[in-house]
Design brief:
Blueprint: H1 4-7, E1 9-10, E2 15-16, H2 21-31, E3 35-39, E4 45-50, H3 51-57, H4 70-73, E5 81-82, H5 87-97, E6 101-106, E7 111-117, H6 118-122, H7 127-138, H8 143-150
Parallel strand pairs: 2-3, 5-6
Antiparallel strand pairs: 1-7, 3-4, 6-7
Helix pairs in contact: 5-7
């Protein structure tokens, strides 16, 4: 059985909840990533911040990314998986909630230990299953899926 811990990339860098969006954007640029976990003390996962969040929820609203903090954009509780969960469960979570990145935590501390992205999923997955996954995750967003993503809950 392949687990989330087997396919995740370790050492996902967090942006701290009190850091500004400008700082988060610089980290994204330096690391070549489009999303960062938002972490509190002891790597406790508080949310996920995407480049899209910075543009749509800050810049487009006329806010200053040098003043708005990552924690201000964290809402709800992100979908997560534990490192020992089976890859098929990882796929189900990503498909159901239509997320392209999934934090991997240890339990019960809820500490971030890694991240799984679409690219991590694609490595070694049979072509047919990969096509099914991409179709599910990238399907046009329905009002219901938006509501689910904004509701605080975890896996």
């Amino acid at each position: 059985m392949t687990s989330a811990g087997d396919i995740m990339h370790r050492g996902a860098e967090c942006v701290r909840e009190h850091e500004t969006l400008a700082t988060a954007a610089r980290i994204m640029k330096e690391r070549g990533v489009g999303a960062l976990p938002i972490c509190g003390e002891r790597q406790k996962l508080l949310g996920i911040l995407t480049d899209r969040d910075i543009v749509l929820r800050c810049v487009a609203d006329g806010l200053d990314p040098d003043r708005v903090t990552a924690g201000e954009l964290a809402r709800g509780r992100p979908m997560t998986v534990e490192s020992d969960e089976d890859v098929e469960q990882v796929l189900r979570v990503m498909e159901q909630y239509r997320v392209r990145r999934l934090p991997v935590i240890n339990h019960p501390e809820h500490e971030l230990v890694g991240m799984i992205s679409e690219a991590d999923i694609a490595r070694g997955m049979p072509q047919a299953r990969l096509a099914e996954f991409v179709t599910a995750v990238c399907a046009e967003e329905s009002p219901r899926s938006k509501e689910v993503l904004e509701t605080p809950q975890g896996v």
